[in-house]
Specification:
heterodimer, A: alpha+beta, Sulfite Oxidase, Chain A, domain 2, 2 domains, five-stranded mixed beta sheet, 5 helices, B: mainly alpha, Fumarate Reductase Cytochrome B subunit, two-stranded antiparallel ribbon, 62% helix, globular, transmembrane (chain B), Thiosulfate reductase (chain B), heme binding (chain B), Di-haem_cyt_TM (chain B)
Chain lengths: 270, 240
Amino acid sequence: MDNNPDYSAPPLPTSSADTPETDVAREAAGRSRRAFIVGGLAALAGVGGWRWLLTRPADEGTPWPFRRVLDANGRLSQAYFRETRLAPTFPKSMATSRQNGNIGLKESFVTADWRMRVQAYAPAGAPARVQEFTLADIKALPRVDMTTELKCIEGWSIKVNWVGARFSDFLEKYPLATANGREARYVSVVTPDKAYYVGLDLSNAVHPQTLLCYEMNGQPLTSPHGAPLRLVIPLKYGIKHLKRIGTIAFVDERPADFWAEQGYDWDSGH
Amino acid sequence: MKRLVEKHPLAIRWFHWLNFPILTLMIWSGLLIYWANDVYRIGWGSTTLFKFFPDGFYKALGMPQKLAQGMNWHFALMWLFLLNGLLYVGYTLVSGEWRHLLPDRNSFREAILVTLHDLGLRKGAPPVVKYNGAQKIAYTAVVLMGVGSLLTGLAIYKPVQFAWLTKLLGGYEWAGAEHFALTIGYVLFFVVHIAQVTRAGWNNFRSMVAGFQIVDAQHPVVGDPVAGAPGRPTSPTLPA
């Protein structure tokens, strides 16, 4: 057993005018009153703060204080973020499939006509350029085969085998993200029907596991999985794995992001 | 004759009471996240004893699908949870309060006796000290659970950057399940804690708000009570 000087503190001094018994009672009542009033005020302040938070104007689908915290968390994560940190990979035998989400895929679509339109980085003064690519152009890049975990923001995850070209290899061969010695900060990826769109930091897009993917689990991509070309970015939740790439643009301003507009974290992963 | 004795320092009281709304909001926002894909259950094979949560639970609450809102609260409040936890642990270390909280060799045997007494299976009252063995174990465990929640939370929040941690915890799905299990642990802790506080009564509850307790002057507050010593209370208040 312990000897605690606080706990075994001597009785509080008593005044000679009162009997000790009533003195203790008065002291106890006074201290209790003060403590409960302070506690009550603190609780009221807490409730007030809670109401204040919930009534702030929204910044992209969430009260702005939450957006500020999410973005601060993102900056902190970016500071710790290293391209060399790879998402875990798994044996191909563990790969499975699950179809989820068809926003951006609802329009009738002819794969043979597909072209990927890329809007090059054009900082002030540089000319705007748009270049088109065929699937053969992407397949001509080094082929990467990997099995990573696809993590849904809802909480479930599956292992999927992906085959495609590294986004970084694409940019190495076609330096569309740089102009006048400068580099774009963001990448916008949009479906052909413009219904689904994601924004990425360029540093995330050039992560060695970020793929322009054309095969899944040993088969060419099927339409529900985003044929003919989709984005695979194991750094992020599934919501950033845009299916059926239509347009890519390299820009300086944070581009529109479907789920960030609904109140979700811009980073949604790492 | 009665006297006032100091029991809980001001800092401990603030950390304790701040933790209450913080943890409540963490659990609430965690539920909003969990409800997006409610897979956890207690059972084996196709037998389910309990599903988190039964349909009636969702019906009663109107089942809000507010995943983004839940995540935003969770990723903001985690900082307060971390800060409050660090300050609490730091304070107990600096002030020496940790000596009351850390279980020792005797605590486990004592905890069994206390539990038997609480369940009405043992007559003899446990010794009157600031925290009995069961309390020491519970209060230390809940701090360790907090550390566990932070680690498992980090593993599922940034599973690529902290891939080593996620792997150590058994992978992404396991880390998520562990995070959830710890939450259930807090809820169970809360239920027992409230029951014990209710049992222990007003004098004990007030000590966590105002800091002091009123005791009989002859009441041996510290140290081992001497068996059969005069003035030893027959039904001491169990501090909770």
